[in-house]
Each structure stands twice: as structure tokens, then as C-alpha cells.
Specification:
Number of strands: 11
Shape: elongated
Strand order of the largest sheet: 3-8-7-4-5-6
Distance between the termini: 12 Å
Number of helices: 9
């Protein structure tokens, strides 16, 4: 085993609580774990959105796959002075997203449907309401399986790009070194090289979550030391622990 791991940077938002697997990992193995998102979301302005020629009120149902989608849908409606009718139906990927709608609408007066956590589960209520015309608020990067599933079921929907994923400014990390960097998306890798074009891996360990993230790392000719998910390690925290302990 190479040099012992003491410091880890998770390229995501700080969970803001000690009740998470990384906090347990840090305590158990005496690690310093920091959090820093390498990417963030920015809203598309009303002018740019209008260029997509999407008529929000032409639609009778909205598909929400994240809280970001909820925030930017209602933000743009407000900016464009669009009054969303009470008859609008909302289809949310999880119960948490459905309840988040209360920030913008009176929950009990609306028709709201939700899945448990996957888009496939959400397809059940969508298929039962196949006559609706759906709006899909999304980012510039959308999981391909979502439009593929909607197309396969011949759902009448419009994709509306309301926010985008952009690289964060990481200049303050220029002189900070970590034993391990943990990445969760190809855009994280893009951000790494946008901020540090001369990045050299050397002894830094790299952990990746997901096939597309791993490919982005390999495309940059970097070495992957930890990969998740796997049958033995379905979560990133488990994969890191197995690497640290050599089990």
C-alpha cells in the first residue's frame, strides 16, 4: 500500500451534519475530510430562456427530477410574469421533491404525483396521465435515460433548459494538497483541469463514482485508485474504507 491516507477532499457540498457515512469514516480512521463542490448551478435568464421558444402555459403537467428544477421553474415563471394555473399537475421523482413544492404552491390544492426515488417509478403516474402535455425543466446536462424513457413510452413532453452546471472557481485550493480527491461527475474533472490545467496526479489517490466519471478521469490519463459503486462497495464511503483498510 502506498503512503497512508490522512486527508480527503469530497467534491460535493458539505452535508452540514455529523450524521453521514463520511463523518463516521473520518472518526473511525482519524481522517481529515473536507468538502468543496467543484461545480455549481446557475439559472438561465429569461432572455436566454425565451430563445428556446418554450411556452410554459402550453403544458398541463411538469416533471421535476430535482429541487433545482423546482426552484428555476418558479423563478423563471416569476421573472417572465407567468401565472401558473392551479390546474397544473406536478410529477416529482421523490416525495422529498414533492413536499419541497410547498415553498411555492399550496400543496393541498394541487394535483401532485411522485415516485420513491427513481425515474422509472415516476413513469407509472406519468403513463396514467398520458394525455397531458408535459414540461421537463432541466439543466444543460440531463441523464440520457430520462428522455429515452419518455420517448420509449411516447410521452408528449418538452425539454426546457432552465439552469446549467458550471465550473466553480477553485483558485483558493491552488496550494492545498490532499491525499485523495473524490469525484462524482465528468464535470468535476472538467472543473479540475479548467482551474488547474497543469494538474499532475503524482501520489494523489483518485476515487470516482459512476462509469462516466471514471471515463472522464481515464480520458485525462489519470490513475483511478478507488471506484464505486461495485458489488462489494455500493457507496463511495464503503469503497474508500475498503481501500484504506486493504480489505
Amino acid at each position: 500500500m502506498a503512503e497512508k491516507i490522512k486527508t480527503i477532499l469530497i467534491t460535493q457540498q458539505d452535508p452540514g451534519s455529523d450524521k453521514n457515512p463520511y463523518a463516521e469514516l473520518a472518526k473511525k480512521h482519524k481522517l481529515k475530510i473536507d468538502y468543496r463542490p467543484f461545480i455549481h448551478v446557475e439559472g438561465v435568464n429569461a432572455l436566454d430562456f425565451r430563445q428556446q421558444k418554450v411556452d410554459v402555459l402550453e403544458h398541463t403537467g411538469v416533471i421535476f427530477t430535482s429541487r433545482n428544477a423546482v426552484d428555476h421553474y418558479f423563478r423563471l415563471a416569476k421573472e417572465m410574469r407567468i401565472s401558473i394555473p392551479e390546474t397544473m399537475k406536478y410529477f416529482c421523482m421523490s416525495e422529498a421533491i414533492a413536499y419541497y413544492l410547498q415553498k411555492y404552491i399550496q400543496f393541498r390544492k394541487r394535483k401532485i404525483f411522485f415516485g420513491h426515488s427513481t425515474f422509472q417509478e415516476l413513469m407509472e403516474p406519468i403513463k396514467k396521465n398520458k394525455t397531458e402535455k408535459f414540461l421537463l425543466p432541466c439543466a444543460d446536462i440531463l441523464k440520457p435515460s430520462i428522455p429515452e424513457t419518455l420517448d420509449k413510452e411516447k410521452i408528449n413532453y418538452t425539454r426546457a433548459m432552465m439552469y446549467k452546471t458550471v465550473c466553480s472557481d477553485l483558485s483558493d485550493l491552488a496550494d492545498v494538497k490532499y491525499d485523495m480527491l473524490v469525484f462524482f461527475s465528468p464535470t468535476d474533472i472538467e472543473s479540475l483541469f479548467k482551474n488547474f490545467p497543469d494538474f499532475k496526479q503524482n501520489t494523489t489517490r483518485i476515487a470516482t463514482f459512476g462509469v462516466t466519471t471514471a471515463k472522464a478521469v481515464e480520458d485525462q490519463k489519470l490513475r483511478i485508485d478507488v471506484m464505486a459503486p461495485s458489488p462489494k462497495a455500493p457507496s463511495m464511503s464503503m469503497a474508500i474504507e475498503q481501500y484504506i483498510t486493504g480489505k
